[in-house]
Amino acid sequence: MPGAAPTVVHDLDTNTAEIISVTPSGVFANGSSDQPIFSDDGTAVLFFSTADNLHPDDTDRAYSVYVKDLVTGQIILASRDLNGDSIPVRIRSAAISATGRYVAFGTDGSYTEIPRSSGYQIFLFDRQTGRSRVLSQAFDGGRVTNRSWVQPEAFARDGRLVFEGRDPNYDVNDLNGTKADIYLTACGL
Ligand SMILES: [Ca+2]
Q1: Cβ–Cβ < 8 Å for 68, 21
Q2: Residue 151 belongs to some domain of the structure
Q3: How far is the CA of 66 from the centre of ligand 1 (A)?
Q4: How confident is the model over 119-158, as pLDDT tens digits?
Q5: What is the CA(127)–ligand 1 centre distance, in A?
Q6: How many CB atoms are closer than 10 A to CB 126?
Q7: Which of 33, 71, 135, 177 could connect to 7 by a Cys-Cys bridge, CB 3.0–4.6 Å?
Q8: What is the pTM of this model?
Q9: Number of domains observed in the structure of the chain
Q10: In a domain? residue 2
Q11: CA 47 remoteness from chain centre
């Protein structure tokens, strides 16, 4: 992922491409933007970026997850914690719901929320509240500490979501240790 690769939408009819990894005022990202995926309804694009100038709340160079609202032109910072603060560690994986309202994402192994603890965590960001909740919840209410991951097509159109987790504490009946298991949850539309 060399350089500051822009995120571009190409129009085959007019043979033009519209850059979308820019702020509403037209400021180009000062870091690489990559891995773009559409919401199923086509109203939003999720992408990763190391830029620190796409949103005033993200001031670090760690990979963050953004949503470009193709209707309003706004860029939404999705990798936020339970308090709505920008998560300052690398985001490893992400998916966007069919309507673009929700973003599920997996953090690197050093951040959950206050207090911090170790482990890859899965968060679910809700654009309507501007906050996230933790999906990587152990059966006893604690946090898991082994790797969890969402694939880009993790959301169904009806709001269900699947992800993988290697932590045996997701389920009290998980006896296969840290072998990855698949989990299903629902967040709505
Ligand atoms: Ca960042």
Answers
A1: yes
A2: yes
A3: 10
A4: 678 899 999 999 999 888 788 877 777 788 899 999 999 9
A5: 18
A6: 17
A7: 33
A8: 0.87
A9: 1
A10: no
A11: 8
The CA 31 to ligand 1 mean position distance, Å, reads 9
- 149 CA → ligand 1 middle, Å: 19
The boundaries of the domain holding residue 82 are 8-186
Residue 68's CATH number: 2.40.128
Report if residue 1 sits inside a domain.
no
3-class secondary-structure state, position 43: coil
Q: How many CB atoms lie within 10 A of CB 181?
A: 15
| Averaged pLDDT of the chain | 87
Distance between Cα 56 and ligand 1 center (Å)? 10
Choose between 64 and 115: higher pLDDT: 64
Q: Tokens 């690769």 belong to which residue?
A: 5
Residue 13 lies in a domain: yes
Q: In the predicted model, what is the mean pLDDT of residues 77-97?
A: 92
pLDDT range class, residue 1, cuts 50, 70, 90: very low
Report the C-alpha gap between 142 and 129 in whole angstroms: 23
Residue 110 pLDDT > 70: no
CA of 76 to the centre of ligand 1 (A): 12
Q: How far is the CA of 139 from the centre of ligand 1 (A)?
A: 31
Classify residue 164 as exposed, middle or buried by CB count within 10 Å of its CB (0-12, 13-18, 19+).
middle
